[in-house]
């Protein structure tokens, strides 16, 4: 790992002033943020947050963006009431902290959310996107959940599922070229394994000069040199969902 002192450098460009257009709801045993488009739709996207949790304004910003593009967007609390990571926490304790929050154990929550989306929102076609910790969860879900039509994993930590590549549904993998915690050799290996084992559509894309978290954590208005790549990443994500949902 390139940066042992800060194993997950996501805290860039926060939108602390962003309130969100949606509302918080109770979905079974978990809380969730949901935002719906102005026109009715049977398409929905589950948004899986990063280590900073379901209430992070940046993640809600993306959920709202999905809603403006015609999707019911829901961001559940996949930590199920456990505290999210804070930038002020001691990074030396991060590995112990993350062990208690397994991105590969999101199935129970996803099943509850799927039922809610179908029963309460009339959703018939449902996809999933996720960032960092959530990106790893997306890869896990694309390997085993038959009810999710497609997934977009944004800088998901590959090392969590590096031996599993038989995806059930079309999956798009987004990575930054300068990501400190996901070396490019890991991305290359992922591509090789997918080529050998994957029977469904997939794409792996690396965005030049971008660091971990760039699609949802970088502020396009304060990083002019990054703006084209932030916008491209978001557009690619929407285009992928449009294609497969």
UniProtKB/TrEMBL annotation:
Presence of keyword Protein biosynthesis: no
Residues of the signal peptide: none
Gene3D superfamilies: alpha/beta hydrolase
Keyword annotations from UniProtKB, A to Z: Cytoplasm
Assigned GO CC terms: cytosol
Stretches assigned to the Dienelactone hydrolase domain: 30-245
An annotated Gene Ontology molecular function: hydrolase activity
Location of this chain's protein in the cell: Cytoplasm, Cytosol
SUPFAM superfamilies found in the cross-reference section: alpha/beta-Hydrolases
Coiled coil: none
Keyword Cytoplasm appears in the UniProt entry: yes
Superkingdom of origin: Eukaryota
InterPro entries noted in UniProt: AB_hydrolase_fold, CMBL, Dienelactn_hydro
Homology family: Belongs to the dienelactone hydrolase family.
Name of the featured protein: Carboxymethylenebutenolidase homolog
Species of provenance: Prunella fulvescens (Brown accentor)
Organism ancestry: Eukaryota, Metazoa, Chordata, Craniata, Vertebrata
């Amino acid at each position: 790992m390139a940066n042992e002192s800060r194993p997950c450098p996501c805290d860039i460009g926060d939108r602390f002033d962003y309130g969100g257009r949606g509302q918080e709801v109770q979905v079974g045993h978990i809380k969730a943020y949901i935002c719906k488009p102005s026109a009715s739709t049977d398409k929905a996207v589950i948004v899986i947050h990063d280590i900073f949790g379901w209430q992070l304004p940046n993640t809600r910003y993306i959920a709202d963006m999905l809603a403006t593009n015609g999707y019911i967007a829901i961001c559940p609390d996949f930590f199920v009431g456990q505290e999210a990571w804070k930038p002020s926490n001691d990074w030396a304790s991060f590995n112990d902290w993350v062990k208690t929050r397994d991105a590969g154990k999101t199935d129970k929550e996803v099943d509850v959310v799927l039922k809610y989306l179908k029963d309460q929102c009339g959703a018939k076609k449902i996809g999933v996107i996720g960032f960092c910790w959530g990106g790893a969860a997306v890869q896990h879900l694309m390997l085993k959940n038959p009810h999710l039509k497609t997934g977009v994993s944004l800088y998901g930590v590959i090392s969590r599922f590096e031996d599993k590549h038989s995806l059930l549904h079309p999956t798009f993998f987004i990575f930054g070229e300068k990501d400190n915690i996901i070396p490019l050799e890991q991305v290359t290996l992922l591509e090789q394994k997918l080529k050998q084992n994957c029977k469904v559509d997939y794409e792996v894309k690396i965005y030049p000069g971008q660091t971990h978290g760039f699609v949802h954590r970088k502020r396009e208005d304060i990083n002019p040199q990054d703006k084209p790549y932030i916008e491209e990443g978001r557009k690619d994500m929407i285009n992928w969902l449009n294609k497969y949902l």
